[in-house]
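ugh finaly. both done.
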Amino acid sequence: MRLNSPLARYTETIDGKVRCVLCPHRCLLEEGRVGICRVRRNEGGRLTIPFYGVLSSVAVDPIEKKPLYHFYPGSTIFSVGFYGCNFRCPFCQNYTISQHTEESALRTSPPALVREALRAGSFGIAYTYSEPLVHFEYVMDAAKEARKAGLKNVLVSNGYLNPEPTEELLPFLDAANIDLKAWNEEFYRREVKGSLQPVLEFIRRASKRIHLEVTTLVIPGVNDDPDEIEEAARFLASLNRKIPYHLTCYFPRYKYSVRPTQEEDLYPLIERARKHLDFVYAGNTGGGNVTVCPACGQEVIRRIGYFTRVVGGKNGLCSQCGEAIYVE
């Protein structure tokens, strides 16, 4: 473990213990202990971040892989991942980095990260793969550097963050995809060791400030209740019916051996969600997804896998009727 680690923010000291108040877990840590995220530690009565700048992965991805379908469609984005997570999803698709830490991994300063993104010719940086918000201080520092360099900042996250740090972060973000695990409080408590309401609050706040898309990984017999999917869509529509909602196929990973989601499993759920939302997509299917203008019906964006073409839009608007469809 790194000595003289940087200090974390959003902390309280209680009788020699340190409480982290970054996320709703509010972990109270004795000396030498780490939070549920595994990356925030009590060292000498101070909360430290020994994995500051430690990256698990760096890549240039299609923006659709985040997934973001209505934000610079067809572009690629410089993407960085971390270690650790403040959830314990037994079905995690990235468990090798979310449920572990690696001290010997690459350590990159925020200015160096921005230089790499510029060198890659990307329009922005995506903080993604595991859970970036448990590295709040690094994401904030990198987002500020990126903004100064003219780059966009994209967050892919579970949205499990307290309101005060959320409000600090949002002015430096341009877009986010938030993972809504289920529309079920018991599911959040039992399966991911978290709570639904803080995620909904993050989504509410983000929907007012940045481009927002939402994803639910659909697991057969676990979180695929059609009524719950429709309630999730109804909630999103109460914020903005143009929020894109991605219903994606699950594949067995980590501790889960539930059968994989089939593409046809998603169709009735998509139909229920489309009662309330203009843009609902099937994900992890290997097929295509088309964006159709909700006002006039013109095909605007055509996708096959990660190959994307804007076929009926210009400057973010439907070329036939002028309806706002995407960010460019």
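ok and the 2nd:
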Amino acid sequence: MTTTALTVTPLSNRIGAQIDGVDLTELDDAEFTAIDEALMRYQVVFLRGQELTADSQAAFAGRWGPLSVFPVSKMMGRDTTMSVIEDTVESPPATDTWHTDVTWIAEPPRIAVLYGDIIPPAGGDTMWSSLYAAYEQLSPEMAAICERLLVVHHRGAEFDRITGEIFGAQLIADLEANYPAVVHPLIRTHPVTGKKALFVAGHFMDQIIGMNRAESDLLLGYLQGLIDNPNNQVRWHWQHGDVAIWDEASTNHRALADHYPQHRRMRRCTVDGDRPFYRD
């Protein structure tokens, strides 16, 4: 795929591509369309050598739609759409598990844009896994079972514990009042591609409706384990100025913690999404 000097190079046959030959601060409509098409095809795309400020990052991401305000920020009366994720000796990395962002709200984000600001000399990679490929691993019988199941999503005890320690118990109470548990399909239909994806989200999944806890934990554990298949993954080794853009509706991701205690600082913003749905 080429548009002027823009090139798209697949990183595997399942997921991931690198885009070269474009400056995200001087993007024309044809180049943006090419990036969007590559994102929908490869699920996560990477660009190197981009010098983005918080404002230029937000302007680029905003071409997909309104930017999300994190629920914790909303409860604090803030409207910021840019999150700084910073790992230090005093603040160890805390996202080294497979997940999709903020699935515990009715309309989770649909696209994320992450910028590499301060990169450690070793470690600190991020990985993505294809939820399309995970769905395709299911037998026809298992797929038929999963396609009719609904899952309760919630922030989870660990999220509430960490957030409560930082911001206090009242904020957790406000979150619970404004963002109670939500129900999403276990298999979701992508709103753009129409493809089916296994909608697992790590610790944000609480329980399958209609199953007891033991049954639900067993099935969700098996399904979440499909994300570990290395043939369905891509891993990115960061440099300063790198940008990763991913489709939240068809991927899980995790930020590895092997750089600790080295310093790592990233900037992330997400684009508002719609309510997940399943359509046969």
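summary for the 2nd one i guess: The chain has eight helices and 16 strands.
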